[in-house]
Specification:
- The protein is 17% helix and 40% strand.
- By secondary structure, it is of the alpha+beta class.
């Protein structure tokens, strides 16, 4: 479990096919301290994907296995050596939850369609499939490459988020160019609400909320 508050940007050292999946090696010096070294079996969110440390190459570098399902659902298959990736260690009980609950189980891939400047902030519009858009609400939360963000507008197959200068500097989102692919994870609470109400096929979460307010 994660918060979507990126702790550092690491670097992909290698990304190699392995069977039906892959292996990835990541330099993560920004995560490491003398008090909290990296540990075998630890969960790390890499661009929003929960990976398990399978091997420690040194104190600041680890290797993880990437499942076939992860390759299918994420933009990992487009990673190359030298790419920057957002990194976050798992949430501990007692930590502040300053972002939102992020599972590290991405729903799919989005594409940066446009960006515009509003004051010191930038507004990014991402294209997504209609199923993801139906799970997304204005003022709700979304994780983009593992970064917790607030949705400011939603369409049938797109949504927008506003990024402050700190987020642009401290994450890989500030490096995105038009057409770039990103990992998307919807708010898990919204997904459970839709499932519990039995409205998966007929109503969007936006319609459910609107109906509740109308009552």
């Amino acid at each position: 479990m994660f918060t979507g508050l990126i702790q550092t940007v690491g670097q992909v050292l290698s990304f190699k096919p392995r069977g039906s999946g892959a292996s990835i090696q990541i330099e993560a010096s920004g995560l490491v301290s003398a008090e909290e070294p990296l540990c075998l079996g630890e969960s790390i969110a890499v661009n929003g994907v929960c990976l398990t440390i399978a091997k420690l190459l040194d104190a600041k570098t680890f290797e993880a296995d990437v499942l076939e399902e992860t390759l299918r659902c994420s933009m990992f298959r487009h990673l190359h050596a030298g790419d920057g990736v957002n990194l976050e260690r798992a949430l501990r009980f007692g930590d502040r939850l300053d972002g939102h609950i992020v599972t590290g189980h991405v729903d799919g891939v989005g594409r940066l369609l446009s960006q515009r400047t509003e004051g010191e902030d930038k507004v990014f519009r991402f294209g997504c499939d209609m199923a993801f858009a139906r799970k997304t609400v204005r003022k709700g939360s979304v994780a983009i490459n593992g970064t917790s963000l607030t949705v400011c507008a939603v369409g049938d197959d797109w949504f927008e988020v506003a990024l402050i200068p700190t987020t642009l500097r401290a994450t890989v989102l500030g490096r995105l160019t038009l057409g770039a692919l990103v990992n998307l994870e919807s708010d898990i609470l919204g997904a459970y609400v839709r499932r519990a109400l039995g409205c998966e096929a007929s109503l969007s979460l936006r319609q459910i909320i609107a109906a509740g307010f109308a009552d």
